[in-house]
Amino acid sequence: MFFTLLRQWVVTPFRHYRLFHNFTRQDFYGQFAASVGGFLWLFLTPVVYIIIYSFVFGYVFQIRAVEEYGQTEFVIFMMIGYLPWFAFAEAMSKSTGLLIEKAPLITKVMFPVQIIPVVGTVVPYLTHAIGFGVLLVYLALQGYLSWLWLWLPIILFLQFLFTMGLVAVLSALCVFLRDLQQLVALLVTIWFFLTPIIYPISLIQSERIRDLFLLNPMHSFINLYREIILLGELPMENLRIVVPVALLSYLLGGWLFIKIKHAFGDVL
């Protein structure tokens, strides 16, 4: 029974590829409906963020470089963590309304409902992967490019699986517990500040507290991006954390979604 439900979750995007493709295209292009700039915003947004953070941290706070990352400019250090985090945070924030927004469709049309959290994760990652790609092109031109960059798509895919599992759980539970919408928004904000994105972890003096950051999977993801890109190193400790965590999140989250999806119609 367990593996039957799990198989439904894993094969859905492939078995129902046309539906998955149409939903993804609709949601992706829907972001730019009636927008004058259209796709230009995908490139302008990360550039504007880089300019803003360069001014705030470089000019106002006079934060110039991060020593443990080879005197890397602080804004580069931060954006390497911020852009992947932004994809994760947007998917998490939208997860609580995925099924509620599609309630008329779910209650009136027979289709694999489990495709909704998959699409709800794919679209934010597609959107922000473009901004991350722009940053990588800039860093490659600055001389940071190395063969270890081949790991970056793998790390991003693992982060995507980790996110998809959480999105599946949250979207399902929010059908029954609507207060989760406010709670998740709060928890994502707290999670952001508990992840070393706008500060290097070396600022934390206590080694015991620094070790506790290993319990935060997003810290390991962010650290992998930074060490691969800026130092040309692959931190195996972080890799050993993200692989099982990503797979467990994806599989258990999907299993739970399939397990309770039959009750959605009654509540929605």
How does this structure look, described?
- The protein contains 13 helices and 2 strands; from the N terminus they run H-H-H-E-E-H-H-H-H-H-H-H-H-H-H.
- It is mostly helical and 268 residues long.
- It starts with a helix and ends with a helix.
- The chain has a two-stranded antiparallel ribbon with strand order 1-2.
- A hairpin with a 5-residue loop joins strand 1 and strand 2 (72-73).
- It has helices spanning 2-15, 17-30, 40-60, 74-95, 98-101, 103-108, 115-141, 152-176, 180-193, 207-212, 217-231, 236-260, 264-267; strands spanning 65-66, 72-73.
- It has one domain.
- Helix 2 (17-30) crosses helix 7 (115-141), helix 3 packs across helix 7 and helix 8 (152-176) runs parallel beside helix 12 (236-260).
Strands, helices and their partners?
Blueprint lengths: L1 H14 L1 H14 L9 H21 L4 E2 L5 E2 H22 L2 H4 L1 H6 L6 H27 L10 H25 L3 H14 L13 H6 L4 H15 L4 H25 L3 H4 L1
Antiparallel strand pairs: 1-2
Keywords:
268 residues, mainly alpha, two-stranded antiparallel ribbon, 13 helices
Q: Within the largest sheet, what's the order of strands?
A: 1-2
Count of alpha/pi helices: 13
User: What is the tally of beta strands?
Assistant: 2
The pLDDT mean sits at 86
Structural class: mainly alpha
Q: Name the poorly predicted regions.
A: none
Query: What is the rounded distance between the termini?
Result: 26 Å
Shape: globular
Number of domains: 1
Cα Rg: 20 Å
H/E order of the elements?
HHHEEHHHHHHHHHH
